[in-house]
Amino acid sequence: MEQLVPLVGIARLAAEGHLLAEKRRVEYRTLPTRKWLTRCDSQRVPFHWSINPYRGCEYGCKYCYARFTHEFLERRSPDAFETEIYAKDWNAAAFHEELRSVKPGQIIGIGTATDPYQPVERKFRLTRQTIEALMTLQGISIFITTKSNLVTSDISLLKKLQKRNEVGVTLTVTTMDRELARLIEPYAPRPDLRMQAVAELAASGIPVGVIANPVLPLITDSEENLESVARTAKAAGACQFGANVVFLKTAAQRVFFPFLAERFPQHLRRYEHNFAAGAYLKGKYPERIRALANSIRERVGIQSRDMENITVPEIPGSQMLLF
Are the C-beta atoms of 282 and 321 separated by less than 8 Å? Predict the structure, then answer.
């Protein structure tokens, strides 16, 4: 008889959670949480700290890099990341104690792995409670990344937070083509709704940028597509625009490659070949996309994001991958 290996760490905590609610394709569970603040040491992110009130994201973006995080919960089904959403247990006193570690001049990123304004936020308001708690800080930078127009519901809070700290919001918009967006981001708000949120944030005096991340080779990487996003962002009041190439870890490939086989079969072999050596593309292709983004910014009259200066280090002797 096979003996089950006992769960440890966050997988054990996830197993101890209980069902909060469910709907047609998604169930929501609690997640006992030791810490809300995560220290960031990676050179690929410009944050000192990150906060993700939820684990998993129900938007179902086919390319999502964060799918691998559900493997730590021992949830290895390809669609578990988008159908099993965990809401972290909220303890205001414990969170305020964690915030004592944040120093003036440091940067906190909210929504670095899962969308902080996905539909579950309407019910549990964990992102809102996080922002309210951050009011005790002074002299830090807080940046929110989301695909959701729900962020506008917290404009009044963000304006209060802005009085003693630097606050910014970034909306992700990969394409203005509604049909294409529905294919690659099936349950996310429409691109026009996201741009409407950009306009509301900008009109409220909250600095807002737009990123066309991730750029999907052969699908969203045309100059026409990227310039359309940049021009719409500029017209809505965005002050920054960025675009970086997709990276595909194994967990993401397990969802994205079957999607390609079904919807873009003509591109599947090239993706498989180009990502065979690893999750990150290197060489002339990402360099071309960076140059294209710079050219578009100059024509549109919009600034780059600070993150545009962060690149993946080349590995000596690595294959130069091209699309």
Answer: yes
Whether the predicted model's global pTM rises above the 0.85 cut: yes
In whole angstroms, what separates CA 68 from the centre of its chain? 13
What does the block give as tokens for 105? 């001049």
3-state SS of the chain: helix, strand, coil percent to 5? 40, 15, 45
CA atoms lying within 13 Å on the CB side of residue 166 = 10
Least confident of 11-15, 126-130, 199-203: 11-15
Cα within 13 Å of Cα(71), Cβ side:
10
The whole-angstrom separation of Cα 34 and Cα 10 is: 9
The domain locations on the chain are 9-306
Residue 1 pLDDT exceeds 70:
no
Q: How confident is the model at residue 120 (pLDDT cuts 50, 70, 90)?
A: very high
Rg of the chain over Cα atoms, rounded to whole angstroms, equals 20
Strands 107-110 and 240-242 come out as unpaired
CB 88 within 8 A of CB 53: yes
Q: Report pLDDT digits (tens) over 261-318.
A: 999 999 999 999 999 989 999 889 999 999 999 999 999 999 997 555 433 333 333 3
Domain 9-306 matching CATH 1.10.10.10: the answer reads no
Strand arrangement, sheet containing 49-51? 38-39, 49-51, 107-110, 141-146, 166-172, 208-211, 240-242
- Cα 41 off chain centre by: 18
